[in-house]
Amino acid sequence: MKQTRKESLRRRHARIRRAVSGTPERPRLAVFRSHQHIYVQLIDDTRHHTLAAASTMEPEVRSSLKSGGTCEASAQVGKLIAERSLQLGIKQVVFDRGGNLYHGRVQALAEAAREQGLDF
Question: pLDDT by residue (tens digit) across 58-86?
């Protein structure tokens, strides 16, 4: 039986989540990618608490972009989440790509966050 793309994504995400967990000192940088937008959160899995979040839906990001579904938009969100995490005193995170392949928009977000000073 052949799997759909969505089923493959769910299986990859479950496999990744078995190994990746966030702590207060090193939270999980969770990425969700839709066709039109990208969302990212810093999550402390021990308390089930979101420490910071950023997305292409925010007015400051949305006003400067033509579309939220581009690598350029993802890079802006990566810079924004890195700035917010550094303000909280968080320099190290665990990267959770959410079952997506490390390519394109997910890669652009990760590289932009690293350039701003996040370590993962």
Answer: 999 999 999 999 999 999 999 999 999 99
- Residues near 84 by Cβ (< 8 Å), separated by ≥ 6? 42, 52, 54
Identify any residues that bridge with 33 across adjacent strands, giving them in sequence order. 38
Identify whether the C-beta of residue 120 lies closer than 8 Å to the C-beta of residue 96: no
**Which H or E run includes 41?**
strand 38-44
- Answer whether 0.85 is exceeded by the pTM: yes
- What's the Cα-to-Cα distance from 47 to each of 11, 27, 43, 89, rounded to whole Å? 25, 11, 9, 18
Q: Which fold has domain 5-115?
A: Nucleotidyltransferase; domain 5 (3.30.420)
Q: Nearest CA to 108 among 33, 41, 42, 36?
A: 33
User: Would you list the domain boundaries of the chain?
Assistant: 5-115
